[in-house]
Amino acid sequence: MKIAQRPRVIIRDCRTYDVQKIRQIIREGLDELGLEPSGRTLIKPNCVASGDMFSNAYTRPEFLEGVILGLKDRDRGKVSEMAVGERCGITIPTRLAFEGAGYYPVFERTGIKHYHFEEVPQVEIRYTHAKRLRDYVFTPEPVAKADFFVNCPKFKSHPWTTITFSMKNYIGIQDDRHRLIDHDHRLDEKLADLQYIIQPQFIAIDAITAGEGRMLTPIPFPLGLVIMGNNQVAFDSVCASIIGLDPLTIPHVKLAHERGFGPTDPAAIDVSGDVTLDEAKARAKGFKVGLIRVEKYFEGSHITAYAGPPPETELTDYCWGGCPGALEEAIEILRLYDKECDEKLPRMHIVFGAYDGPIDAKPGEKVIFIGDCAKFSGRANNELISVESIYKHRSTKDPYHAKHDDIFAKMVSVTAKLTASRNESHFRLGGCPVSVAEQVLTLVTLGKLKNPYLAPDQIVEFNKAYFGWRGAQLANRLRGQKYQVHGPSARGEAAPEMPEPASPPAAE
Ligand code: SF4
Question: Which of the ends of the chain has fewer CB neighbours closer than 10 A, N or C?
Answer without folding.
Answer: C
